[in-house]
Amino acid sequence: MNSGEVHVQDKPEVTPDERTWAMLAHLSALLGIVVPFGNAIAPFVVWRARRGRSTFVSDQALESLNFNVTVLIAALACYLLTRVLIGILLFVVLVLYWLGTTVIAAVRAGEGIRYRHPVTLRLVE
To answer: What angle do the packed helices 38-50 and 16-27 form, to 10 degrees?
Structure first.
């Protein structure tokens, strides 16, 4: 062993099945496009169904759930601000941000990388 080498214990590998479920936990939020509150209900269902089987899937489903609850609260604020017209613009920005970060989170989870949404309320633990 070279004096400059440092051996670090590798973290356990995330299985392809775990990656798929974690990615689905994030993408399931897109159900909110057609089902009211589906963006929070779908990740909740994945979290409840898979939380005992995989810490990675549980973590990512919970992250998606917290993010989507935060988005619902922000959407309500946008709705309340539509009286002063700024709410419409803010809602458009919110939807674009939601779509973009949901896709980014799904891609990262599919790669086996733990993703954290910025500006998210951690309401469910």
So the answer is: 160
pTM for the full predicted model: 0.85
Structure tokens at 84: 């002063």
Tell me how far CA of residue 48 lies from CA of 15, 52, 61, 64, 65, in angstroms: 19, 8, 9, 13, 11
User: 43 pLDDT exceeds 90?
Assistant: yes
- Rounded percentage of the chain residues whose pLDDT exceeds 70: 90
Confirm whether 67 is domain-assigned: yes
Domain count for the chain, please give it. Answer: 1
CA distances from 13 to 5, 8, 9, 42 (A): 22, 14, 12, 26
| Tokens matching residue 112 | 């086996």
- 125 in a domain, yes or no? no
CA 15, chain centre distance (Å): 19
